[in-house]
Amino acid sequence: MPTGEELLRSKGLRVTRPRLAVLDVLAGGGHLEVDEITRRVRERLDSVSTQAVYDVLGALSRAGLSRRIEPAGSPARYEARVGDNHHHVVCRGCGEIADIDCAVGDAPCLDSGITHGFQVDEAEVTFWGLCPACQARRSTDH
Ligand SMILES: [Zn+2]
Ligand SMILES: [Zn+2]
Ligand SMILES: [Zn+2]
Fold first, then answer.
1. Where are the transmembrane segments (predicted)?
2. What CATH number does the domain located at 85-141 have?
3. pLDDT for 91-125, tens place per residue?
């Protein structure tokens, strides 16, 4: 695994403590909301504004070091798993998100054949359903 410093340098980004801290938080895995990322960054650095965290996430996402997803009805979330065009399954009950591997591996993995002249570079696929915990809750509800 490359270090945060190596990742930033590989993309030509300046190495700063907030950027390293955000990369470190994202490397822990999962799909994190900005509030959660900010909370964890503050455990590592004394004073970081929410705006600074937004700025870092923007820079990391533009550089391809983090990926932003925004399922309908949920705030934006960020993750470190990039470059594999994986998809997500979102729970309708609690909003839990899990990764689903893309069968193709690179975008766009679906071809509708009709693009109205657009040059298509991505098919955003989101699966919706109920997570195991919500299924269990539902079956004990009645
Ligand atoms: Zn759920
Ligand atoms: Zn993901
Ligand atoms: Zn796919």
1. none
2. 3.30.1490.190
3. 999 999 999 999 998 999 998 888 899 999 999 99
